[in-house]
Specification:
single chain, 79 residues, mainly alpha, Helix Hairpins, 0% strand, elongated
Amino acid sequence: MAKNTKAAVTAKTSSAADDFRAKSADELSEQVAKLKKEQFNLRFQKANGQLEKTNRIRLIRRDIARIETIMAEQRRKAV
């Protein structure tokens, strides 16, 4: 059962990356700014003991990394 779960997560991740690749650099920058703001708010909620979905912090962090990686790929292609 664990393998099926990992496969589902991997499939979801690749489609998210494909969605990000379809966006322009400006859209990606806006998305990163939005995610960083959400990450900031989640950190405050965690510090105050108000955060219910603790795994959301990790998901946000990974999405930010995913977008920044795609932005770096686009910059390398442009040069």
